[in-house]
Amino acid sequence: MKPLSRRQIAWRAAQDITDGAYVNLGIGLPTLVADFIPRDREIVFHSENGILGLGPAPGPNELDPDLINAGKAPVTLLPGGSFFHHNDAFLMIRGGHLDIALLGAFEVSEDGDIANWTTEDPDFPPGVGGAMDLAVGAKEIRVLVEHTTRDGKPRIRKQCGYPLTATRCVKRIYTNLAVIDVTPNGMVARELVEGLTFEELQNVTEAKLTLADDWQPLKAA
Amino acid sequence: MKPLSRRQIAWRAAQDITDGAYVNLGIGLPTLVADFIPRDREIVFHSENGILGLGPAPGPNELDPDLINAGKAPVTLLPGGSFFHHNDAFLMIRGGHLDIALLGAFEVSEDGDIANWTTEDPDFPPGVGGAMDLAVGAKEIRVLVEHTTRDGKPRIRKQCGYPLTATRCVKRIYTNLAVIDVTPNGMVARELVEGLTFEELQNVTEAKLTLADDWQPLKAA
Amino acid sequence: MINKQVASLAAALNGIKDGSTVLCGGFGAVGTPDELMDALLEQGAKDLVIVSNNAGVGAKGLAGLIGAGRVRKIICSYPRSDDPRAFDTAYKTGKIELELVPQGTISERMRCAAAGLGGFYSRVSAGTKLAAGKEVRDIDGVPHVLERPLKGDVALIRAHRADRWGNLTYRKSARNFNPVMAMAADLSIVQVAEMVELGEIDPEAVHTPGIFVDRIIVI
Amino acid sequence: MINKQVASLAAALNGIKDGSTVLCGGFGAVGTPDELMDALLEQGAKDLVIVSNNAGVGAKGLAGLIGAGRVRKIICSYPRSDDPRAFDTAYKTGKIELELVPQGTISERMRCAAAGLGGFYSRVSAGTKLAAGKEVRDIDGVPHVLERPLKGDVALIRAHRADRWGNLTYRKSARNFNPVMAMAADLSIVQVAEMVELGEIDPEAVHTPGIFVDRIIVI
Question: What is the CA angle C157-B97-B142, rounded to 5?
Answer without folding.
Answer: 105
